[in-house]
C-alpha cells in the first residue's frame, strides 16, 4: 500500500461515519507515515501562491521573513505535537464529539455553522486563485490587490464554471476528492520548486547573499498594506492554522495516530508547504516587480497585482497555469467537502450530496469577490482568531480541570445541550480582543494567543461557578 493510499484510508475513516461517537479502536490506528503524506500535500496548495507575494507587499525584510517563518512554523509544529496530538491519542474522539461532551449539542451546531461558513470563504479564495490561471487564455483582466468586486463578465463566467465543477466533484464523496488530490499534490510541490529555481535564475542569484538581498532590509509597504515586522511574520505563520492545532480541529485526524509523536509529521506541511512554497511564490512576485508593467504601476502609486496565474505563467508557461489550477483545486475540493459535513450537522435530514452542493454554491459566490484572496493574510488571521479559542476549552479542561475541581465533560454528565460557560468564555475573550484590535489598530495575530489563553481560563472559572451552584 502506498503512502498516499494509507493517508487516504486514514482520512476516509476520519470524515466518514465510522467511530464518530466512540474512540478509535487499537486495530484501526495508523503509523506516522500515514500523516506525513497528508500534511505535506495539504499545505502545498493554492493559498501558497498568494501568501508568498503578499508578504512582499508588506515590505518585509529578509531576516524577518526567513527567520520569522522558520520560528513561526516551528511553533505551529510544537502546537500540533504537544497539544493536538497529545489530547487526540488520549481520548481518540473527533473534535465535534469531544466538544459535544463539553459544550452540548446546541453549541456544537452553532460551531459547525460558523466553521462551515468560514470553510466556504476559504474555498472561495481557492476558486479565485484557479480563475486567475484559467483566465489567461481568454485574456481576462486580472483582479488587482485592492479589488473587492468582480471586474467583468469573463471573470464571473470563469469563477462560476470552476465553482460548479469543484462542487460536483466534492459532492460525489471523499473517494472522488481524495483520488483527484492524490495525483495532483506531487505535481504542485514540483511546480513550487520549479518556480523557485526559475525565479532565482531570472533574479541572477548566484549566492546566499544575493538571495538575502532580494528582501534586504525591507521596504515601505505597498499602498493599502501594513508594514510587517519580525513578530508579524512569526505570529501570523504560527496562527495561520490556528483552527487546526490550538483550535483542536485536527483531533479528528490524530485520533487515528498510534502515538502522539505522529504530531511531528506536521513539519512536512510547515516546511515543504508553508516555508518552501511561500518563499518560492514570493520569488515569483519579485521577478514580476522588475518588469516595466510593475514599475509603471509602482510609479503611479498603485500596488502591482498578485494574481497567481500570470505569475506562474511567466515562470513556467502552461505548466504554471496547470499548477495554479491544480493547487486551487486540491484545496477547494476537500474544503468544500468539509464545509458540507459541517452544514450537515445543522441540516441533518439533508443528504451529504446536497449540503455539499450548497457549500459549493456559497464558496463560488465568495470566489466572485477577489477580496477573499487579495486579503488572504487578513482573512486567515481572522479565521484562526474566531475558531482558536474554542480549542482552548478542550486544552484547559484536559490539563487543568482536575486541579481546579471542575467536572469534565459537564454537558454529557449533566445532560444539558447548552453549556453557558463555553459560550461566555468564548464571547468575552473574542469580544474583548477583537475590540482591542479594532480600537487600537492591533494586528489580529498579536491578540490570538491572549484571546486563546483568556478563553481557557474563563471557561474553568465560569464552569466552577456554574457547577458549584448546580450542586448546592
From TrEMBL:
The chain crosses the membrane at residues 65-89, 109-133, 153-171, 183-201, 228-247, 268-291, 311-332, 353-373, 379-396, 417-436, 442-462. One of its GO terms (cellular component) is plasma membrane. The keyword Transmembrane applies. Coiled coil: none annotated. It comes from the Bacteria. InterPro entries: CodB. One of its GO terms (molecular function) is cytosine transmembrane transporter activity. Keywords: Membrane, Transmembrane, Transmembrane helix. This is Purine-cytosine permease. It comes from Euzebyella marina. The lineage of its organism: Bacteria, Pseudomonadati, Bacteroidota, Flavobacteriia, Flavobacteriales.
Amino acid at each position: 500500500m502506498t503512502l498516499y493510499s494509507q493517508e487516504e484510508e486514514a482520512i476516509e475513516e476520519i470524515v466518514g461515519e465510522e467511530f464518530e461517537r466512540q474512540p478509535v479502536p487499537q486495530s484501526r490506528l495508523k503509523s506516522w507515515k500515514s500523516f506525513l503524506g497528508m500534511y505535506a500535500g495539504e499545505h502545498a496548495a493554492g493559498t501558497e501562491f498568494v501568501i508568498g507575494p503578499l508578504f512582499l507587499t508588506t515590505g518585509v525584510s529578509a531576516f524577518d521573513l526567513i527567520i520569522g517563518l522558520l520560528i513561526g512554523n516551528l511553533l505551529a509544529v510544537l502546537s500540533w505535537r504537544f497539544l493536538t496530538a497529545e489530547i487526540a491519542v488520549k481520548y481518540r474522539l473527533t473534535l465535534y464529539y469531544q466538544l459535544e461532551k463539553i459544550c452540548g449539542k446546541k453549541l456544537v451546531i452553532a460551531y459547525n455553522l460558523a466553521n462551515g461558513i468560514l470553510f466556504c470563504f476559504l474555498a472561495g479564495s481557492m476558486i479565485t486563485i484557479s480563475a486567475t490561471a484559467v483566465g489567461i487564455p481568454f485574456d481576462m483582466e486580472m483582479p488587482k490587490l485592492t479589488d473587492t468586486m468582480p471586474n467583468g463578465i469573463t471573470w464571473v463566467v470563469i469563477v462560476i464554471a470552476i465553482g460548479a465543477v469543484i462542487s460536483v466533484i466534492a459532492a460525489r464523496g471523499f473517494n472522488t476528492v481524495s483520488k483527484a488530490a492524490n495525483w495532483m499534490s506531487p505535481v504542485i510541490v514540483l511546480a513550487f520548486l520549479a518556480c523557485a529555481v526559475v525565479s532565482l535564475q531570472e533574479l541572477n542569484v548566484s549566492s546566499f547573499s544575493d538571495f538575502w538581498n532580494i528582501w534586504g532590509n525591507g521596504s515601505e509597504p505597498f499602498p493599502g498594506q501594513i508594514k510587517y515586522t519580525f513578530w508579524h511574520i512569526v505570529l501570523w505563520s504560527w496562527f495561520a492554522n490556528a483552527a487546526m492545532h490550538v483550535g483542536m480541529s485536527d483531533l479528528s485526524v490524530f485520533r487515528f495516530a498510534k502515538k502522539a509523536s505522529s504530531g511531528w509529521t506536521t513539519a512536512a506541511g510547515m516546511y515543504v508547504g508553508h516555508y518552501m512554497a511561500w518563499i518560492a511564490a514570493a520569488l515569483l512576485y519579485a521577478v514580476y516587480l522588475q518588469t516595466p508593467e510593475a514599475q509603471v504601476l509602482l510609479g503611479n502609486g498603485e500596488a502591482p497585482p498578485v494574481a497567481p496565474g500570470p505569475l506562474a505563467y511567466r515562470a513556467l508557461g502552461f505548466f504554471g497555469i496547470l499548477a495554479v489550477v491544480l493547487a486551487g483545486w486540491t484545496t477547494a475540493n476537500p474544503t468544500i467537502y468539509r464545509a458540507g459535513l459541517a452544514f450537515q450537522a445543522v441540516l441533518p435530514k439533508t443528504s451529504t450530496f446536497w449540503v455539499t452542493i450548497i457549500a459549493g454554491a456559497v464558496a463560488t459566490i465568495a470566489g466572485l469577490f477577489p477580496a477573499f484572496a487579495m486579503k488572504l493574510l487578513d482573512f486567515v488571521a481572522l479565521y484562526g482568531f474566531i475558531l482558536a479559542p474554542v480549542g482552548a476549552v478542550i486544552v484547559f479542561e484536559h490539563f487543568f480541570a482536575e486541579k481546579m475541581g471542575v467536572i469534565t465533560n459537564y454537558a454529557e454528565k449533566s445532560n444539558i445541550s447548552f453549556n453557558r460557560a463555553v459560550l461566555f468564555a468564548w464571547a468575552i475573550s473574542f469580544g474583548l480582543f477583537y475590540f482591542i484590535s479594532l480600537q487600537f489598530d492591533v494586528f489580529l495575530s498579536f491578540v490570538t494567543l491572549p484571546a486563546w489563553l483568556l478563553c481557557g481560563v474563563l471557561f474553568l472559572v465560569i464552569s466552577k461557578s456554574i457547577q458549584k451552584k448546580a450542586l448546592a
